[in-house]
Amino acid sequence: MNFNPLSFDIISVVYGLISINTILRLIKNRRAFRDDTVTAEDRDLAVRIAVFLLVPAGVLLHELGHALATWQLGGRVIEFQWRVFWGYIIPAGNFSPLEDWWISLSGNIVSIALGLVVIPLIPFVRKQILKHLLYVFANCQLVYALIFYPIFSFSGFEGDWARIYDFSLKPYAQLTFAAHILLLLALWLFNKRYGSFNI
Questions:
Q1: Is the dihedral angle over the CA atoms 123, 85, 153, 93 positive or is it negative?
Q2: Are 93 and 75 in contact (CB under 8 A)?
């Protein structure tokens, strides 16, 4: 299957319009959003903030993770694309297969870390709507990095996980697979605990 950046750019434009609408809604409803009463509209707005305002920062950091790994290995980044809701880098250098694996994994480590780092904060946040916002953001990062992006990578598109799961790179791909399974289990437990908004 051929990778068509135009279709992803079109999706980014549509998401960008939703992002602008989200900002306008947040400005209009800022008092109601910050008060102690959590309504269905507040929850909807929290989801929109997590998806349409925070995820683009996660995409940028994901690509920076790839770039940092490239520079760490003495390579160059000849193209860095952050198209708000998607992106890529093109590294240049004389990389071994293991180094290519590390460059592919590094952006995903950043995405997973972004999701994991907010989870311990949830119990300490006083406002229910902010707890919900953190919960949704953690899920966005982890579900994307651990489920959707691997599926995307093996669906004929270009994606990191096809290289990450090159099982000829023993034991790295195998250890990554084991960590992946443990993280999926942790994600399931996280959602079992917080999924019903009993935060």
A1: negative
A2: yes
Answer yes or no: are the C-beta atoms of 53 and 24 closer than 8 Å: no
Percent of the chain with pLDDT over 90: 90
Do 66 and 90 touch, CB atoms closer than 8 A?
no
DSSP assignment of 119-148: GGGGGG---HHHHHHHHHHHHHHHHIIIII
* CB neighbour burial string for 131-169, b if at least 16 within 10 angstroms, e if fewer: bbbbbbbbbbbbebbbeebbebbeeeeebbbbbbbbeeb
| Long-range contacts at 153-160 (CB < 8 A, ≥ 24 apart) | 155/1, 156/1, 157/1, 157/3, 158/3, 160/104, 160/105, 160/107, 160/108
Largest CA distance in the chain: 57
The dihedral sign for the CA sequence 192, 195, 197, 199: positive
Torsion angles phi and psi, residue 34, rounded to 5: -85, -15
Q: Mean pLDDT across the stretch 43-57?
A: 97
pLDDT per position as a tens digit, 133-180: 999 999 999 999 999 999 999 988 778 999 999 999 999 999 999 999
Give the Cα separation of 126 and 132 in Å (integer): 11
Rounded to an integer, the average pLDDT of 183-197 is 86
